Amino acid sequence: MATNKQKIISTRQNQLARIAKALGHPIRIYVIEFLSKQTCCYSGDLTELLPIAKSTLSQHLKELKNAGLIQGEIEGTKIKYCLNQENWQIAQKAFKELF
What we know:
By secondary structure, the protein is of the alpha+beta class. It is built from 6 helices and 3 strands.
């Protein structure tokens, strides 16, 4: 019987829940909005803009990255973050279909 219950939740629903959770904090919304207005930025740039510790920012960036909404690329001692355009488009489409 447990097998039937497991089939109720689709891959899309799991994906939407993961994205919604990642977007469930105002700092993460800010980061997404900030990155949507430019090509990329370094985590140090965000640290200067936001009134939070670097370690806290790192955790927020990790959540967004784990949800697939952003991607990070190491450049020397810095990490450059950008929206993951492909996953962002998938997320937008999925939420439009939901609502």
